[in-house]
Amino acid sequence: MRSVVLLLLGAQLAYAGTHSLKYFYTAVSRDIDFPEFTAVGLVDDGQFMYFDSNIKKAVPKTEWIRQNVGADYWDSETQSDIGSHQAFKNNIQIAMERFNQSKGVHTVQMMYGCEWDDQTGATNGFYQEGYDGEDFLFMDLKEKRWISPVQQGFPTAHKWNNDRADLEGRKHYFSTECIEWLKKYLEYGKSSLQKTVSPQVSLLQKDPSSPVTCHATGFYPSGVTISWMKNGQEHHEDVDLGELLPNEDGTFQKSSTIRVTPDEWKKNEFSCVVEHQGKTVTETEDKIRTNNETSVPIAIIVGAVAAVILLVVIGVVGFMVYQKKKGFKPVSASDDGSNSSART
């Protein structure tokens, strides 16, 4: 699915630029030790609400949302997510039939939401669905039409394209209501969203012949750039950039791994450059930490594992299944009068 961006207000904005409101819905078929349905809401990539089919209740994940909305808000979220759970259960069965599948673990995901540039005023909206980690359906908001890249999604796209009233309603929602909610949430959370925390950067290597990982963690906001330099020049060959992951304290982490032979390390000068909020941190190969050293940053490695576990616990399984779908975005169920529709 194509990348999109996503939500705040005047001089009190968390930080200048593009802001986002995202909702990720994930439904999992039976025979797996995981909730059948999860819903996660994020503002500027920070989680603020959560629902799953086991607890059957939408709950706040930040103090700023807890302090600014009442019981009616959470009752509405809960009822909407319960309805989405039923629709998604039906969608999995229909998708399995279309793909001629009768068993196995399968996932249906939806991401929808909006973005707003506080400097230019530009807005954007998006709605995307996936099945088993692959693109299934998305909405072209500008053209007001549904598009499916796979034959199994054609019946859904055709049916929804014939519902012009729904298309108009969704366009209004994404361009108006969603943006209003985004600004409202950003205002609620401005005290915490305004914070800036610089990353801690480490170079990690299992042994001298293993790839080297440049690991940045503990930073906020989420926008960070990690690049490699070779003899003072940008180097992109044999580099794998990892996904952005949340830490339990609300900060983020990200890594980039480079595969270079020991001989190349000796003959050249490599360094990792991490840029965040106008500040740059550079680590050179003499700072590499390996398993042979007593100073290995075990806490950092454990933190990385904990973050991956946290993703599953909070239900952002879509981040992991959609490893190549960065930018996949959704909006609050209670804010949207028309939730995901069951396919027929």
Automatic annotation (TrEMBL):
The chain crosses the membrane at residues 298-322. Residues 199-289 form the Ig-like domain. One of its GO terms (cellular component) is external side of plasma membrane. Keywords: Glycoprotein, Immunoglobulin domain, Membrane, Signal, Transmembrane, Transmembrane helix. InterPro entries: Ig-like_dom, Ig-like_dom_sf, Ig-like_fold, Ig/MHC_CS, Ig_C1-set, MHC_class-I_related, MHC_I-like_Ag-recog, MHC_I-like_Ag-recog_sf. SMART domains: IGc1. One of its GO terms (biological process) is immune response. Residues 1-16 form the signal peptide. PROSITE patterns: IG_LIKE, IG_MHC. Belongs to the MHC class I family. This is MHC class I antigen. It comes from Ctenopharyngodon idella. The lineage of its organism: Eukaryota, Metazoa, Chordata, Craniata, Vertebrata.
